[in-house]
Amino acid sequence: MPIVVQGYQAKEIEFEAHGVTIVYRLVHMPDRFKTRIVLLMAGGRNLSAADRTKFLESFRVKKKF
């Protein structure tokens, strides 16, 4: 299932090591003259799918940096 963050295409990568789960979302933000890649990250012990989704979706990426 494709992931979309604020209308931009994204990929989700999940790692687990020593009981800690880390989830990355790479957001591809093409612009007229350049392309930006934004990294959103969440992690912790006993991280449920609902918790990580709620945390990651709470971020709002501004168009201008």
Q: Biggest β-sheet: count, sense, barrel?
A: 4 strands, antiparallel
Query: Which band does the percent of strand residues land in?
Result: over 45%
Tally of individual helices: 1
N-to-C CA distance? 29 Å
- Give the tally of structural domains: 1
Can you describe this structure in just a few lines?
Helix content is 14%, strand content 54%. It has 1 helix and 4 strands, in the order ββββα.
Give your account of this protein's structure.
The structure is a single chain. This protein starts with a strand and ends in an 8-residue tail after the last helix. With 65 residues, the protein is mainly β. It has a 4-stranded antiparallel beta sheet, with helices on one face. The radius of gyration is 13 Å and the shape is elongated. 14% of the residues lie in helices and 54% in strands. It has one domain. The mean pLDDT is 80. A hairpin with a 2-residue loop joins strand 1 and strand 2.
